[in-house]
UniProtKB/TrEMBL annotation:
Protein name per its UniProtKB record: ROK family transcriptional regulator
Cross-referenced Pfam families: ROK (PF00480)
Domain of life, per lineage: Bacteria
Similarity section: Belongs to the ROK (NagC/XylR) family.
PROSITE patterns, alphabetized: ROK
Entries under InterPro entries matching the protein: ATPase_NBD, ROK, ROK_cs
């Protein structure tokens, strides 16, 4: 039986991934290019065109009914434009229009990468079966997205749920976004590592100063490394509790590189959450690691396309 498919694009500062995905979230075909992030906007678009081109030459392409894009942000879904912080050549870049052209006029749905990962975790991952969820990506930055009343809630521009830029420290460090004391400024991987180094932690013989190396040191009991993860956990807990208090989510899912730190992050996070999420309606809030892995962006972009083009779906998104 030839069921309809959707094309999915996952666009980040390192790679541009594409896929053809069926209504059950299965990836049937993949294509990928490195992102020429420091080049001009049209050079970056050529890499996107190459990925789409690789999909369109497949006989499966005839079954594609829509294109979903999850892009590094900020994005503006209402205008169809993207301005990814880590791709300087794209500022208010008309990505939807360009992709529609490359995809022979198929309808195109644009969401931010945090929202895409949320869509994937709700459809196939740790938030499955939850009608109200916050999903977060904690890595180089901190992004996120919301599911409310069983539906993805991207907001008018596709950025709703961007928890990384909730302020949790009124007098905290200035954040590159222009605010201060943001969750991202405390909990992102580079900031966990920066704080550990400032506190006197030193890397091993390999010289690795990443958050993953700090996590390893924390597991071995290094007090400075432990303290840096505890501070990150506290910031995440404050942001999650604020979100839950506003919109009554019952699960927060954490993915990204920092989310892989395991107990070093989740034990202090659950402890801190108990001190911030104190009202009766948020006390049952659970926190879980993401399950979808590296395909989350593609599967979530596909979910967004499917939800706007129900004729293409065989499994409710």
């Amino acid at each position: 039986m030839h069921t309809d498919l959707v094309a999915a694009l996952d666009i980040g500062g390192t790679k541009i991934a594409g896929a053809l995905v069926d209504g059950h979230g299965r990836i049937l075909l993949r294509a990928q290019r490195a992102t020429p992030a420091q080049e001009g906007g049209d050079t970056v678009m050529r890499a996107v065109d190459d990925v789409i081109g690789e999909l369109t030459v497949s006989p499966l392409w005839n079954r594609a009914r829509a294109v979903g894009i999850g892009s590094a942000g900020p994005v503006d879904a209402s205008a169809g434009t993207v301005s990814p912080v880590n791709v300087p050549g794209w500022r208010d870049y008309p990505l939807v229009e360009r992709v529609r052209k490359a995809a022979a006029g198929l309808p195109v749905e644009l969401i931010g990468d945090g929202v895409a990962i949320t869509a994937a975790e709700h459809w196939q991952g740790a938030a499955r079966g939850h009608d109200n969820a916050l999903c977060m990506v904690v890595s180089t930055g901190v992004g996120g997205g919301l599911v409310l009343n069983g539906q993805l809630h991207p907001g008018p521009t596709g950025n709703a749920g961007h928890i990384g830029h909730i302020s949790v420290d009124l007098d905290g460090d200035s954040c590159p976004c222009g605010s201060r004391g943001c969750v991202e400024r405390i909990a992102s991987g580079p900031n966990i590592a920066r704080r550990a180094l400032e506190g006197g932690w030193r890397p091993g013989p390999d010289g690795d100063t990443s958050a993953a190396a700090v996590a390893e040191a924390a597991r071995a009991g290094d007090p400075v490394a432990v303290a840096s993860f505890e501070r990150a956990a506290q910031a995440l807990a404050a942001g999650i509790a604020a979100t839950a208090t506003l919109v009554e989510i019952d699960i927060a899912v954490i993915g990204g590189g920092v989310g892989k730190a395991g107990d070093v992050l989740f034990v202090p996070l659950r402890e801190a959450l108990a001190t911030y999420a104190t009202l009766s309606f948020v006390r049952r809030l659970t926190v879980a690691p993401a399950l979808m892995g590296t395909d989350a962006g593609l599967v979530g972009a596909a979910a967004a396309a499917l939800s706007r083009n129900p004729s293409a779906t065989a499994a409710g998104v």
